[in-house]
């Protein structure tokens, strides 16, 4: 049984906020990829594992879901309050563009946000 596009988006945010890597990855197709301004392009399972390793806590605030007519693409808007492993906190607005396959599994997730504060925080964490 397929879940709806809206359920994919809401489940994604809920699982991401709780750092439930396996559940987030289960929303992706086997070959699903993530394109991130901080981490680059990688397989979903690898991206969420690294993100979980860098994250102490996340608080996500849903701000909108946008559907494109006659496509299998949706966009998700939310606020990301991110606490890194070293305790540093960064807040930013995120747009996730989600490309789904015919089974409503995520083929590609493109993350868009301003990295001005998060990039320096991650670079400090990785030192």
Keyword list:
4 helices; alpha+beta; 127 residues
Q: How would you describe what is shown here?
A:
The chain has 127 residues and is α+β, with helices and mostly antiparallel strands. It is built from 4 helices and 6 strands, in the order H-H-E-E-H-E-E-E-E-H. Strands 2-1-6-5-4-3 form a 6-stranded mixed sheet. The termini are far apart. The model has no long low-confidence stretch (mean pLDDT 92).
In short:
This protein is α+β, with helices and mostly antiparallel strands. Helices cover 31% and strands 45% of the residues. It starts with a helix and ends with a helix.
Helix and strand layout, with pairings?
Layout: H1 5-17, H2 21-26, E1 28-36, E2 40-43, H3 44-54, E3 55-67, E4 73-84, E5 89-100, E6 106-112, H4 118-126
Parallel strand pairs: 1-6
Antiparallel strand pairs: 1-2, 3-4, 4-5, 5-6
């Amino acid at each position: 049984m397929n879940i709806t596009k809206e359920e994919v988006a809401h489940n994604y945010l809920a699982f991401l906020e709780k750092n439930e890597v396996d559940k987030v990855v289960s929303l992706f197709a086997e070959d699903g990829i993530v394109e991130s301004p901080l981490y680059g392009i990688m397989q979903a399972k690898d991206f969420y594992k690294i993100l979980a390793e860098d994250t102490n806590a996340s608080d996500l605030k849903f701000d909108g879901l946008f559907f494109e007519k006659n496509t299998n693409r949706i966009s998700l808007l939310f606020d990301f309050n991110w606490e890194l492993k070293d305790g540093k906190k960064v807040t930013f607005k995120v747009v996730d563009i989600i490309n789904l396959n015919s089974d409503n599994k995520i083929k590609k997730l493109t993350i868009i946000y301003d990295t001005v504060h998060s990039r320096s925080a991650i670079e400090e964490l990785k030192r």
